[in-house]
Each structure stands twice: as C-alpha cells, then as structure tokens.
Specification:
Blueprint: E1 2-3, E2 19-24, H1 36-56, E3 63-64, H2 70-76, H3 83-91, E4 95-96, H4 111-126, E5 135-137, H5 147-153, E6 158-161, H6 169-172, E7 175-179, E8 185-190, H7 217-231, E9 239-244, H8 255-265, E10 270-273, H9 276-285, E11 292-294, H10 314-338
Parallel strand pairs: 2-9, 2-10, 3-4, 5-6, 6-8, 7-11
Antiparallel strand pairs: 1-11, 7-8
Length: 339
C-alpha cells in the first residue's frame, strides 16, 4: 500500500545536486553451484587480495563485506593470523561488516530465526568493530511485512535491498519509507539497477580477473553515463548508487584510478566512496520528501524473486522447520523454566 507520496529529483527538483556513491563490495554465496569448501577457497583468495590492496593503497577507501558476519568466520578458519588486519580496517571504517550472520530468505525461516540471525551477526561483527547499522539485504528473494519492526527492535532505522519492489517503485523512487504492520518504519534504499550495476567498471565482462589487466576508462565512462541516465529519475534525494561488485567478485585494484577519471569526465557530479551506512547518512542529510510503502515487498518489476526456492529440496525445509519448532517451542522454554 502506497501512501504519503512525495516529490523528488527527476520530478521538477533539478536544482538538487547529484552525489554518486561508489560502493565496492562482494556478494558471497557460501554454497551454490560449487561445494562449500571450493567457494571458501575463492573467498580466501578474495579477502587476501582485499587486504593486500587496502594495506598498500590508502586511496582504496571502502569495501563492504556483503552484510554477513559468517564470512569472517569462514575466512579466519583458514587465515587466523589475519584477524588483527581485519580489526584494524573495521576500526578505521574502511571495511563494513555485518549486521546479519547469514543473509536470510525471510519467507523460509521463522521470525525468531531472523531475530537470532541479527543478534548473532551483530555480536560477531562487534568483535571487530562497529557493525553495519543498515539492514543490508542485497539478494534476498522478497521481504516480509514485519522486517522493519525487527530491524527497529535492534535500533536499525534503515535498509538497503535490490529485490522485491514492484510497480510501486515507479512512484516511490529509490528511497522511501517502509512501514511494518505495527507502524514501525525504516528508510529504504532500493538498488533499482541491482547490486551489480557498477561491477567491473572498465571491463567488458565481470569475470573477476582484474590483476594484470588495465581498465578501459572510456568503457567505464560510457557505462556510468548510462547508469546516471537511468537512475537519476528515481533519486528522490539526488543520491545515486553504483554497486561496484557482484557474486563472488574480488575487489578491483584499479578502482581509485577509475574514480579519478570519472571525476574528470563528470565534473558536475560529486563522487564519493561509500558503505551502506554512508549512503543512508547522505540521504537523511538532504531532508528529501519521501513516499511510504506498508507491507510485504514481493514485487518483481526490477529483479526476479526466483520463487522456485520455496519448493526445491523440500526435505531440507521440513528438517529446518522441525528443528526450529523443537528449539523455539520446547527446548528453550523448558530450559528457561528449569533455570
């Protein structure tokens, strides 16, 4: 349900300056078309590359580690000696971690599972430094109506996601208030062009092989010009997001050079490195007039929801449901009573 509609950039407010955030990140499936350990081998190489780049190049300012703290566990199980390096980057706010433990499919787990997911994820991230204070969910397949309420319960007042917005997005734009059934609301940043819209800038394909390959700066300019044309009409606060990453992509070591070139090619635009939290802070600072949406986000105008996940490998879902019920309805209540 749409309500409290406002007006933003692209609807007559052309005097508002544009800020483009480059958000370097990787999105990590722990197990997908390869077994877990093979994906972990790739993860170790990716984080090794990231640490090398950020240690040797202070102009590589930011990186977001996909919103799930379990990546830290998976990496440090193989590279325990790198914990201090990760802590230093999180403390400097160059590396953004958390707030989830794993990125959930909200329709396939219980409400309590979502709460524990956030609780554990924030606890683990806090070992390294301040966790991301945004409900960052780039690739979940739709979103439950109660998620703003759950986020607010942890003091999280914003969310960022790519899937789930339907035709209402044409009116609401890329920033709007998302309201739960109890009235709790968060500022929602919709990744209208997906979480890969700035992946592999300067390269023809997002293969993830960047070392030893110079970027094509003209190709990067053309790609960014197209993104600016497509995203500006949605940007209610004049903030545009280029997500420089995708599934299992390592960081591009040439990104600082590419951004310098983009600054010269688009002098009318303010260019910033950013994390999800910094994007939200900039939007709030501009005090835009925003619309609001109440209820589930299960639309697919901008990205498919991949609904087949609801019915595949049903035996695993049944086992998970049984385990959740035993823990939530029996083991924990009885243990609490006994205590």
């Amino acid at each position: 349900m749409i309500r409290d509609l406002g007006v933003g950039l692209g609807h007559g407010d052309e005097c508002m300056s544009r800020t483009v955030f480059i958000l370097p990140h990787t999105h990590w499936d722990r197990e997908w078309y390869l077994p877990f350990e093979r994906f972990r081998m790739r993860l170790v190489r990716t984080v090794d590359q990231l640490l090398t780049i950020m240690r040797t190049d202070p102009t590589y300012e930011r990186f977001t580690l996909d919103g799930q703290s379990i990546i830290l566990d998976d990496y440090l199980a193989i590279r325990p000696h790198q914990e201090q390096a990760l802590r230093a980057l999180v403390a400097q706010r160059r590396l953004a971690v958390g707030p989830w433990y794993v990125l959930p499919d909200e329709f396939l787990v219980s409400g309590e599972a979502l709460i524990r997911n956030l609780m554990i994820g924030r606890h683990k991230a806090t070992r390294f430094g301040p966790p991301v204070d945004v409900g960052y969910l780039p690739d979940s397949f739709g979103h439950i109506a109660q998620l703003p309420q759950i986020l607010r319960g942890f003091g999280i007042t914003s969310a960022m996601l790519s899937r789930g917005v339907g035709d209402e997005g044409e009116t609401l734009g890329s920033e709007f208030w998302w309201e739960a059934l109890d009235g709790s609301r968060v500022l929602l940043v919709h990744q209208v062009r997906g979480y890969c819209n700035g992946a592999a800038l300067g390269y023809p394909l997002p293969t993830g092989v960047f070392e030893g390959r110079d970027p094509d700066l003209d190709l990067a300019v053309g790609r960014v010009r197209r993104e600016l044309e497509l995203l500006t009409p949605y940007a209610r606060a004049g903030v545009i997001l280029l997500n420089n990453g995708c599934d299992h992509l390592p960081p591009s070591p040439h990104l600082p050079r590419i951004i310098d070139h983009l600054r010269r090619a688009f002098p009318e635009v303010q260019w910033r490195w950013g994390t999800p939290a910094e994007v939200v802070e900039e939007i709030i600072a501009r005090h835009p007039t925003l619309g609001a949406w109440k209820g589930e986000l299960r639309g697919s105008r901008y990205a498919p929801l991949i609904p087949g996940v609801l019915s595949t490998r049903i035996y695993l879902k049944q086992a998970n449901e049984e385990a959740q019920t035993l823990l939530e309805r029996w083991a924990e209540p009885v243990a609490t009573a006994a205590w």
